[in-house]
Amino acid sequence: MTQNLFRRNRVGSIQKAAPKAALAFFLCALSLTTQATTNYVTGYAFGTNYSALTTSTAITSVTNGYGSIRVGYAGTTGLTITNQLFGQIHVTNDFSSFSINAGSAVISNHMDAVFGVNGGTNLTITGGHFKGIGLSANSPLPPFPNQPPQINTTSGSAIGGYIHDTENVLITDTKFTGSAISTNGISTGKTGLDLHRTKVTITGSAAVTGGTGGDINLSGNLESTGGDALYLEDTTLVASNGTFTGGNAGHVSSTSGGTAVSLAGHAIHATNSSITILNGTYTGGSSAGVAGIGTTESGHAIKALYSDVAITNGTFKGGLGASALMIENSTNTVLAGGTFEAGSTNTAAVTSKNSQLAINGGTFKGGTVNGVTNVSLISTVESGKTNSIALNKGNLGSVIFTGDGRQLVSEGGTNLTLTGTVWQDGGEVVVHNAAESAFQTVVIDDGVMAFQNDYLLLTGGSF
Q: Are 232 and 267 in contact (CB under 8 A)?
């Protein structure tokens, strides 16, 4: 497994501890970088017949409590969890079919990743809550009925899970939650679910949440970050339903005048991926800001870099000061429906940079940007580049075109409701207009705008 895969979070092997170090053995037994040919089980939640478990074809938890499993045996095809566990679940047996049924079980841990899959084809995950938690050294571990209290010996926090290099994944009614921990002036919220080189469908009442960074008020250079709910690289995602929430970032104040950073997480953060959204709720995390010199940034509902996005429906809202959807260098983004809402009164509902965008439906609620009210879309193209923006249908307010490049804009005539201002600040905008109704309040602050068809300014319009 490649190291340092998670945004601003580092993944590493867990070092093995002494057998009596306050149950640290069940946390430390699973190396995330080791491929095995048998199953390896620690703790007692899956029973204590460890010899039989090494080659079991199907494994079921038997009690609440401490227990971890690494599935390495090729003949193992299923895992059922019916209890509340503190441990890790990792699957590395390069399966052709594997099912995980977790129902209402909660599996938690504070080291690396609660859940992980490397390789395989045809994976189904149903139910369960894979919950990362943050724990400091010498703090109590989660209690279980009729179990003596245990003390944690190591500090740490975990992502909810990762799935890498796996084909045909179906996740239904499952929760993944990233944790957070603060150490030495850095408070880091972890990712809910990390997906690399994977094809996955998420449906049902799934919920994926990034960890929340805490407030920091110390001397030195400080940083608080919220975790992404979903982080994708080279992945194909279909989300037919669910709730996805980026982690908030705390307020950061350096008492010594050092730099302060507060960066919130995104609901979906994608690079080189394909995203199809049929429905669901997506909310970016909010930054609580910084005092003095520093950087603050809230999360988007979707931030997509070099990725294609197709949205049919859903609710999308940016964090405080962030747009709902942010695309950059996308070759094909199509919005057919849904509600897109800016996270505050000073940003657009959708921001696009060097991207090909078609709006075929939807409702867009933006704020005021540079004096332009209700900004639904800001489209920017850099010098020497050309993009295409198709405003075919939907309910939009104002639209802003910026940058020094060339933007080819088509509009759908009576199918499009555009109630605000079309504002241009730089570059060349070429409009293929089907009717006059959309471009009735136009301001060209800088640049050249051309209409390919005859254009009539109606009564009450301004140019």
A: no
Burial of residue 202, with CB atoms counted within 10 A of its CB: 0-12 exposed, 13-18 middle, 19 or more buried:
buried
Task: Please give the Cα distance from 8 to 10 (Å, whole number).
Answer: 7
Please answer whether residues 321 and 283 qualify as being in contact, where contact means their C-beta atoms are separated by less than 8 angstroms: no
What phi, psi does 24 have (nearest 5°)? -65, -20
For residue 50, report the phi and psi dihedrals to the nearest 5 degrees: -60, -35
Q: How far apart are CA 284 and CA 324, in angstroms?
A: 7
Record the pTM.
0.90
Sheet of 252-254: strands edge to edge?
A: 216-218, 252-254, 290-291
Other Cβ atoms closer than 10 A to 293: 10
Reported as type and span, the H/E element at residue 25 is helix 24-28
pLDDT per residue, tens digit, the chain (463 aa), is: 333 333 433 233 223 333 333 344 344 444 444 557 999 999 999 999 999 999 999 999 999 999 999 999 999 999 999 999 999 999 999 999 999 999 999 999 998 999 999 999 999 999 999 999 987 766 777 666 666 667 767 778 899 999 999 999 999 999 999 999 888 899 999 999 999 999 999 999 999 999 999 999 999 999 999 999 999 999 999 999 999 999 999 999 998 888 999 999 999 999 999 999 999 999 999 999 999 889 999 999 999 999 999 999 999 999 999 999 999 999 999 999 999 999 988 899 999 999 999 999 999 999 999 999 999 999 999 999 999 999 999 899 999 999 999 999 998 767 788 889 999 999 999 998 766 667 778 899 999 988 887 666 554 556 6
Nearest CA to 202 among 103, 105, 278?
278
Element housing 104 (H / E): strand 98-109
